[in-house]
Design a protein that fits this description.
With 452 residues, the chain is an alpha/beta fold. 39% of the residues lie in helices and 20% in strands.
Length: 452
């Protein structure tokens, strides 16, 4: 265990003899022996002990922790930026893509955003203990279903140091301990942030092992986390297609799948020029490295301003991958490529956009159904019936009507920070906030009732 002054839970020394406590320049961290399976198992045991304490913590106690983390992140801004600069330099030397470098980058504005997201979480209601449903049965039994923490949550992600803070914050507020695998690309940034979080937990007398990182074990640590069924209650991957599918296909722990975003924007024939241009340009260019960025534009052939819309995207610096009909609308000298089937399935995460002209709503819906990753789909229209049909027939976690696809985001939708965008159809779908990291418990109260 870490220093007893900072930890109020007990340990089973027989299973944790390989562990030793150290204090880094960035705060309290924990080091285990060399065996990844045993090390991750010991971390999970500590997380379980810590989750029991956190699960009965009051809202005020948890909110103090969130505010303490937010304040310390801002005070330690220079430490975090210095660590992040090392990760960025390492990424450039190793040829990391521009999109991944953008996700990896922290600057003063983004650090302020991390702190503010934690403060927003603190201001949200505590989901733990929330009433779902209940009644008094004819035999007098009183039953109710309430929200309770998952317990121990694992997260595997890549090149996203902001996710370290987001997941830790949501886990703490919802009463869960968390085991993080943030990847080698953000190793220095994550080490600094995890140290800050653990120091802050110590300040408010919550168990520091509510937040731990398995990064010291590298890929083997990730594999051990995926195999820790019975010790980890749920695992959430966040990243590109390869990472997510690797976790989904190999994990023995239950997984909430977060998805890549091949996001479509359909501009209906009735759409206004100004709205279509504003929504399309924002959906594509606001921040291209995110999963809610538009990747395909479907233009109704009856939309009178298709040429103006494509010209606006071209002026914004977007490389258009167009079909033959869209190519005919392009301004002279535009930077474009002829689209292939590979483009219709692409999640570019860059200033690239596939463009196809369709002759009907039916054709647009068929194209989306074939190529969608079920993340976010959007329509720009001035026809209420078309909007209602689009909403009814689209199978996606989020559907936007006359709004940028960039609004598929926990913070933008008032959920505080988010743990990811779920594209599955289980209990969590779309932006995952506090409630999505809870499950439920049935509580039944009687007066000596027995079943006949």
């Amino acid at each position: 265990m870490t220093s007893a002054a900072h930890d109020s839970v007990t340990t089973d020394e027989a299973t944790r003899t390989a562990r030793k406590a150290v204090v880094s320049d960035h705060g309290i961290v924990a080091t285990f022996g060399e065996d990844p399976v045993a090390g991750v198992a010991a971390m999970a045991d500590d997380a379980r002990d810590s989750a029991r304490v956190l699960g009965r913590a009051t809202r005020a106690w948890k909110d103090r922790a969130l505010l303490a983390i937010a304040d310390r992140i801002e005070r330690k801004r220079d430490v975090v930026l210095a660590a992040n600069a090392k990760d960025l330099e390492h990424g450039r030397v190793n040829g990391t893509s521009t999109a991944l470098l953008d996700r990896l980058k922290l600057d003063a504005e983004r650090i302020t955003g991390l702190a503010e997201s934690l403060r927003e979480l603190a201001a949200l209601p505590d989901p733990v203990g929330g009433f779902v449903r209940g009644s008094t049965l004819p035999n007098g039994l009183r039953m109710r279903q309430v929200r309770v923490p998952m317990g121990v949550v694992g997260a595997i992600y890549e090149a996203r140091p902001n996710v370290t803070v987001d997941i830790a914050g949501i886990a703490l507020k919802s009463g869960n301990a968390v085991l993080l695998r943030g990847g080698s690309a953000a190793e220095e940034s994550n080490r600094a942030l995890v140290g800050i979080i653990r120091d802050s937990l110590a300040d408010v007398k919550l168990p520091v092992d509510c937040v731990q990182s398995v990064d010291e074990y590298g890929r083997e640590g990730a594999n051990a986390l995926m195999a820790a069924r019975g010790k980890v209650d749920v695992l959430i991957p966040r990243g590109g297609h390869g990472l997510i599918q690797s976790v989904v296909q190999n994990a023995k722990v239950p997984v909430i799948e977060t998805g890549e975003g091949n996001v479509h924007l359909f501009v209906d024939h009735s759409a206004s020029k100004a709205m279509a241009v504003a929504v399309a340009v924002n959906s594509k260019t606001h921040r291209t490295s995110t999963c809610n960025t538009a990747e395909t534009l479907l233009l109704h052939s009856g939309f009178a301003h298709g040429a103006a819309l494509l010209a606006a995207l071209d002026r914004a610096g977007v490389t258009l991958h167009v079909d033959q009909r869209a190519e005919a609308m392009l301004p002279a000298g535009s930077h474009h490529l002829r689209a292939t089937d590979e483009d219709w399935g692409a999640e570019y995460l860059s200033m690239d956009l596939a463009v196809k002209v369709v002759d009907s709503m039916d054709e647009a819906l068929q194209h989306i159904d074939r190529w969608s990753t079920r993340h976010t789909e959007a329509i720009v229209t001035n026809d209420l019936a078309n909007a209602e049909r689009f909403v009814a027939e689209i199978d996606a976690a989020a559907v936007m009507v006359n709004a940028s696809t960039r609004f598929t985001d926990g913070g933008q939708l008032g959920l505080g920070a988010e743990i990811g965008i779920s594209t599955q159809k289980m209990h969590a779908r779309g932006p995952m906030g506090l409630e999505e990291l809870t499950t439920t418990k049935w509580i039944v109260q009687g007066d000596g009732h027995v079943r006949a």
